[in-house]
Design a protein that fits this description.
The protein is α+β, with helices and mostly antiparallel strands. It has helices at residues 20-32, 36-39, 80-99, 162-179, 189-195, 206-239; strands at residues 2-5, 12-19, 51-55, 58-67, 70-71, 102-103, 118-125, 128-135, 142-143, 151-152, 159-160. The strands form 4 sheets. Strands 1-2-4-3 form a 4-stranded antiparallel beta sheet. Helix 3 runs antiparallel to helix 4 (162-179) and helix 4 (162-179) runs antiparallel to helix 5.
């Protein structure tokens, strides 16, 4: 991958050369999710392909053009809400892939990256930074039909569910990057434990993961609202002015 500048408008983009003979699946899946039919779907978190450049005299090579998104290597999750927003978008993106019968099969941290193989885009609105996270690198991804979705697993070389592989990879990522690093998401441990079970058939589907995750977020919001109300009540009581009844003397006035 390399950076480049469009001559027409000066926009910075990223270029990725792909060999169709070796990575034809990556090309077909990346362009499929960038089609007009799917690109506008809000659940689609696949990095968009804005152009495909064909190489003259070599039809086996193409260059994909992507917007210049930021890498997650330098992502800083300053609060628990940042982490939950990130995970919510990744779950949503994986669910969209699975609904379209595509397994990513490589959504894990790479090298020194602190997060999965995604990129983010930031929009500035006043002092609020709104981020959208994208899944990248479909080199290992495959599209399956309902009659042929098994493939040989990496560990046991036995047929297994490729969609369950995505669940396991994401579960390990959450454990290593957030739970083990004490990022205040221990309440997700039960879900993560289920996601990384050795038996792929025992792992939850992405739909079940999203349902349980959304329930956790709702409980967090409810707890935050309750805590905020309790804090306001405490502040009101601590700062309330003392109201004292006027003193009434029971001693008759002195005569002069």
């Amino acid at each position: 991958i390399m950076a480049a500048t469009r001559i027409s408008n000066g926009a910075v983009v990223q270029l990725k050369k792909i060999s169709l003979s070796k990575h034809g699946n990556e090309f077909s899946i990346a362009t499929h999710f960038s089609s007009k039919l799917l690109a506008s779907e809000p659940q689609n978190h696949c990095i968009p392909v804005v152009e495909v450049i064909k190489i003259p005299k070599d039809e086996s090579i193409v260059v994909l053009v992507f917007p210049n998104f930021l890498s997650l290597r330098d992502a800083k999750f300053e609060t628990r809400d940042d982490i939950m927003e990130f995970l919510g978008q990744i779950f949503e993106g994986i669910q969209f892939l699975h609904k379209n019968n595509v397994a990513h099969r490589w959504c894990i941290p790479q090298g020194s990256k602190k997060c999965p193989n995604c990129v983010r885009r930031e929009h500035r609105l006043m002092d609020i930074c709104l981020r959208k996270y994208y899944l990248d690198n479909f080199e290992h991804s495959r599209r399956y039909d309902t009659a042929n979705w098994l493939f040989r697993g990496y560990k046991y070389h036995k047929p297994c569910d490729p969609f369950a592989i995505d669940i396991c990879y994401i579960g390990h990522m959450i454990k290593m990057e957030f739970i083990d690093r004490k990022r205040n998401v221990d309440f997700m441990l039960a879900l993560v434990t289920d996601m990384v079970q050795e038996n792929p058939a025992a792992r939850p589907t992405i739909g079940e993961v999203v349902e349980r995750f959304d329930h956790m977020r709702l409980n967090l919001k409810s707890a935050e609202i309750l805590n905020a109300e309790e804090l306001k009540y405490t502040i009101r009581r601590s700062w309330a002015p003392s109201i004292m009844a006027p003193s009434i003397s029971t001693v008759p006035p002195h005569s002069i």
